[in-house]
Amino acid sequence: MGAGHGGPLGAAYVARDTAVHRLPAHVSLVAVLAFALVVVATPLDPAWAPAYGGYAVLVLAAAALARVPAARLARGLVVELPFVLFALLLPVVARGPRVEVLGLSLSESGLVTAGGLLAKATLSVLAATVLAATTTPQDLVRGLQRLRLPAVLVQILSFMVRYADVVTGELRRMRVARESRGFRGRGPGALRVVAATAGALFVRSYERGERVHLAMLARGGDGRLPAGPAPAVPVGTWLTGLALPLSAGAVLAAGVLGA
Amino acid sequence: MHVPDGFLDAPTSLVTGAVAAGAVGLALRGAHRELDERTAPLAGLTAAFVFAVQMVNFPVGAGTSGHLIGGVLTAVLVGPWTAILCTTVVLLVQALLFADGGLTALGTNVVLMGVVAVGVGYGLSRLLVRLLPRTGTGLLAAAGAGAFLSVPAAALAFVGLFAVGGVADVPLGAVLAAMGGAHLLIGIGEALITVAVLGAVLSVRPDLVHGAAHLRRPADLATRPGLRAEEALR
């Protein structure tokens, strides 16, 4: 299981060698966050539909540049589903003047808001999916470290990223063991069995944490994660990385000036 | 379901972001008291456990199954401050690697699922631990009640934020009824799973359970009657 491949956390990563993949993780993080901020700052108004279209073109161009398969992007959008249900309900329950659509009386403001919210959520999910597809979990942790996330939080995060695959693997082996002994997960009795598995998983994870700590002490650990001096990032790299939010910002600015 | 980008207006997101940053800062200090210098590996492994166990489907009766959210369970197992840190880290990983929950809404999600769910749920369970008999069953009942309340409490906090900074013009009563009703049911599932998992840990390793510290009794060491002094020394 090399550099973040396989396992539930590394599954989002698409190994390629593109300009987007080569960006330092903290540049990508800043770019995606700035892009989300621009998208969130755009007004919810039908007049702004061209701006949303522009953002979509930009983020899809970034995905194409990073050679992220369309199926991967589509799978990324699945997390949005519960939210889509909410957005579909919005025109029905929202207040304000009603319009007739296909025989249903729908709120005009509800329709506008639902469309805008869906557009915003979809755009930022797409951007985050491209981020996850072009940056390994380990690099993301290093990126957050360079962005001055508190050191203890960075350590907790790096232990979680390091051991998430191990712990989920343990869970999978316990399920295989259970099912090979004829377990069928039905009825209230099954809750006790599955809960016992989760309980055992907690005990094993906690004990593994204690062993990891002792192993670190034995190797002279002093509670800090060693990190070499971070290489300086040239201005050109920053510009490449920030091209996405900067052009999105330009679209927003054009809209504000045009209005 | 995590709050996505653009759902609440910018001032609300900024305020919840600041509250979340403050709470995580406090939790970093509190977790150090709970776990001392072992904080990073133990909290990291606990976060990995929370992440893994959220993928498990538990049968909760009547042909339905649910998954654990785990705020109160983690708080009773390893302490409330560590639980807030673990929830934060899990939310961060879900937002960054699975696009689940918006990056600009991360503060909102940490406040709802870390601060409110853990704070209210664990607060209630501590209160009940004092009132109920000092037994394992009492602890399980307290944790179950806390886990149940944590889910509608987070949902109510969300409705409150929506009233302040929601961008949709929706009658609040409708949001409250929909969110409240659904989350009461989810809360029952959460309580059942929390009690079952906590019971399993309590039966094998009660010494690991942070919330069971008051149940531990010092082992009584007594010399066997009729034992001669020099024999006892051997």
3D structure, described in words:
Chain B: This is Cobalt/nickel transport system permease protein. Chain B: Pfam families: CbiM. Chain B: InterPro entries: CbiM/NikMN. The complex is a heterodimer of chains A (259) and B (234). Chain A has 259 residues and is mainly alpha-helical. Chain A folds into 2 domains: 13-143 and 233-258, no CATH class; 150-218, no CATH class. Helix content of chain A is 71%, strand content 3%. Chain A has 11 helices and 2 strands; from the N terminus they run ααααααββααααα. In chain A, α9 packs across α10 (187-218). Chain B has 234 residues and is mainly α. Chain B has helices spanning 10-35, 39-53, 71-78, 80-98, 106-131, 136-165, 172-204, 229-233, and strands at residues 58-59, 65-66. In chain B, strands 1-2 form a two-stranded antiparallel ribbon. At the A-B interface, α3, α6, α7, α9 and α10 of A face α1, α2, β1, α4 and α7 of B.
Primary descriptors:
heterodimer; A: 259 residues; mainly alpha; 2 domains; two-stranded antiparallel sheet; 2 strands; flat; disordered N terminus; B: 234 residues; Arp2/3 complex 21 kDa subunit ARPC3; 8 helices; 69% helix; elongated; transmembrane helix (chain A); transmembrane (chain A); ABC/ECF_trnsptr_transmembrane (chain A); cell membrane (chain A)
Question: What layout of secondary structure does this protein have?
Answer:
The complex is a heterodimer of chains A (259) and B (234).
Chain A lengths: L6 H4 L8 H4 L2 H17 L7 H17 L4 H7 L4 H13 L4 E4 L2 E4 H27 L2 H10 L4 H30 L6 H32 L16 H24 L1
Antiparallel strand pairs in A: 1-2
Helix pairs in contact in A: 3-7, 3-8, 3-11, 4-7, 4-11, 6-7, 8-9, 9-10
Chain B lengths: L9 H26 L3 H15 L4 E2 L5 E2 L4 H8 L1 H19 L7 H26 L4 H30 L6 H33 L24 H5 L1
Antiparallel strand pairs in B: 1-2
Helix pairs in contact in B: 1-4, 1-5, 2-4, 3-4, 3-5, 3-6, 3-7, 4-5, 5-6, 6-7
